[in-house]
Design goal:
CATH superfamily of one domain: Golgi alpha-mannosidase II
Number of helices: 15
Shape: globular
Structural class: alpha/beta
Strand content: 15-25%
CATH topology of one domain: Immunoglobulin-like
Largest sheet: 8 strands, parallel
Strand order of the largest sheet: 13-12-11-5-2-1-15-14
CATH class of one domain: Mainly Beta
Bound molecules: 1-deoxynojirimycin, magnesium ion
């Protein structure tokens, strides 16, 4: 059971993101669903995760696979019904697993009744819930772009003679967050899920809610597609958003131990850091995406982590992510032939031992990679509009590889996206049975976190180490955990402190480690505890 008085649970939790279409298909329609997730809860418990973030499962025409919502208070029949959500939540809570749902309120679907009313007439009370500009000639009001359509973000609405704004696909018209009635409606939808018992929200493109009041064109930048040569300073990332974050925080806090994590849109960690608020009165966490864009290397990740820690305001708690449904999986990004698994182990130890809440993405625990998807099988609007450039997201959303049976055990029917070609060798069943597998490495690191609270909430200090090695120490209540990660394919020597070996193959777990020089083999991890 979960403890509703534990208001800081999200600081200690290992989060696991599920892309529900792709996790487990219980009813054989080729698409994953909520019952499928419930059936896999025992698996998630065994892996040891504490909280799930489930990508959208609400009513949707699926133009952006659920990120276009047409009813904020219902489950799409593809995924099940509200009772399936209730049942999943109760079963997860029974196991002590929390569930954070995806709140997509920068935009709705164009099939949401709110938008249908809004577009019907300027006199409709909901008209002002969305963003409009009068059509004057053929030129759109400014240079803002639809990321997923690679064209202007302004679309004509004949009924009112106005443009509406949609910066993802044309089917995702954007709300006007300056409108108080709209805000009330959104807070109502948030309450709906909090009342059902959801443990919080992942807030989709949270820093995009506000647009420039003067609708100025974005300045030029050397970004290539999909950003079409512009810096997003006027169509998102406006300061007004902090006021809304404060309102959301007050709402979440009024329910007790719920949490908010925002997706910030813009690759700037400083922007993400600012979303915590100066007085810890905005989002509980804002995604730190910097690892998603870092080249492999001890220096590169250490620099990134140091910068993030520096940027966070007093009292804010860090978080780290290596993969999600929008970017290439990190196993693929850092692949290096026969060294790929070694790198994945180092990456896992980094993610699970740094100071900050780790977010895993389904399948990373078995080293799922991004395969080639034939053009005819592409589904992602971004992938389709930018093909053959490598921006599509389908390769990161392929079905979870459970076993070596047909469809990788995902379900009885052909899945909505093709299963990765490597599934016969790389799957949960095979890796669970192999004590040296990546899966068992993840599970053992998560167990180690539970056994050593210093790894979860301890202070952190960097340790001196050669250039290819990232080393740090976590301390809490007299207990210390030292972590040494060799990011290179060569042996490196480190000066270790005395203690007890906790993980890695440098010394058998539980054996005493004397202070002095130790050799770390290629991609070797060594974790030592001490009292
Ligand atoms: C960010 C989400 O992570 C992405 O998947 C989605 O397409 C856009 N927001 C639009 O909602
Ligand atoms: Mg299904």
């Amino acid at each position: 059971m979960i403890d509703r008085t534990d208001s800081g649970w999200w600081r200690d939790a290992v989060f696991y993101q599920i892309y529900p279409r792709s996790f487990s298909d219980s009813d054989g329609d080729g698409i994953g669903d909520l019952r499928g997730i419930e059936e896999r809860l025992a698996y998630l418990s065994e892996l040891g995760v504490d909280a799930l973030w489930i990508s959208p499962f609400f009513k949707s025409p699926m133009k952006d696979f659920g990120y276009d919502i047409s009813d904020y208070e219902d489950v799409d029949p593809i995924f099940g019904g509200l009772d399936d959500f209730r049942s999943l939540l109760a079963a997860a809570h029974e196991r002590g697993i929390r569930i954070v749902v995806d709140l997509v309120v920068n935009h709705s679907s164009d099939e949401h009744p709110w938008f249908e009313a809004a577009r019907s007439s300027k006199d409709d009370p909901r008209h002002g819930w969305y963003i409009w500009k009068p059509i004057e000639g053929r030129k759109p009001p400014n240079n803002w772009i639809s990321l997923f359509e690679q064209r202007s973000a302004w679309y004509p609405n004949e009924e009112t003679g106005e443009w509406y704004l949609a910066t993802f696909t044309r089917n995702q018209p954007e709300f006007d967050w300056r409108n108080p009635e709209l805000r009330k409606a959104i807070y109502g939808a948030a309450r709906f899920w909090l009342d059902l018992g959801a443990d919080g929200f992942r807030m989709d493109v949270a820093t995009a809610y506000f647009k420039d009041a003067k609708y100025r064109s974005n300045p030029f930048s050397w970004n290539l597609v999909p950003d079409l040569l512009q810096k997003h300073v006027y169509d998102r990332n406006r300061p007004e958003v902090h006021g809304v974050f404060k309102e959301f925080r007050a709402l979440a806090d009024s329910y007790g131990d719920r949490m908010l994590i925002g997706e910030t849109h813009g690759l700037d960690p400083a922007l993400a850091a600012s979303c915590h608020g100066e007085r810890d009165d905005e989002l509980h966490m804002a995604f730190n995406f910097d690892f998603l864009f870092r080249p492999w290397g001890a220096r590169s990740f250490r620099e990134s982590a140091e910068r993030w820690y520096r940027l966070l305001p007093e009292g804010a708690w860090p978080n780290f992510t290596l993969s999600n449904h929008d970017q290439k999986r990190h196993y693929y990004r850092y692949r290096a032939g026969a060294d790929s698994d070694g790198r994945a182990r180092v990456a896992a130890a980094m993610l699970l031992c740094l100071r900050g809440t780790p977010f895993l993405y389904y399948g990373e625990e078995i080293g799922m990679t991004c395969g080639r998807i034939p053009k005819a099988a592409l589904r992602d609007p971004l992938g389709l509009s930018t093909w053959p450039l490598p921006f599509g997201r389908d390769a990161s959303r392929t079905p979870m590889q459970w076993d070596d049976s047909p469809n990788a055990g995902f379900g009885p029917a052909e899945p909505w996206l093709p299963v990765n070609a490597d599934y016969k060798a790389k799957n949960v069943a095979a890796q669970r049975a192999d004590p040296d597998s990546l899966w068992n490495w993840y599970a053992s690191l998560i167990r180690l976190r539970k056994a050593e609270p210093a790894l979860v909430s301890g202070d952190m200090a960097w340790l001196d180490a050669p250039a290819d090695v990232m080393a740090w120490s976590r301390t809490r209540e007299g207990r210390t955990v030292d972590v040494y990660l060799n990011f290179s394919g060569k042996t490196r020597s480190v000066d270790v402190r005395a203690g007890i070996a906790a993980a890695g193959t440098v010394a058998p777990a539980g054996s005493e480690v004397a202070a002095g020089e130790r050799r770390l083999g290629p991609y070797e991890v060594f974790i030592v505890t001490r009292r």
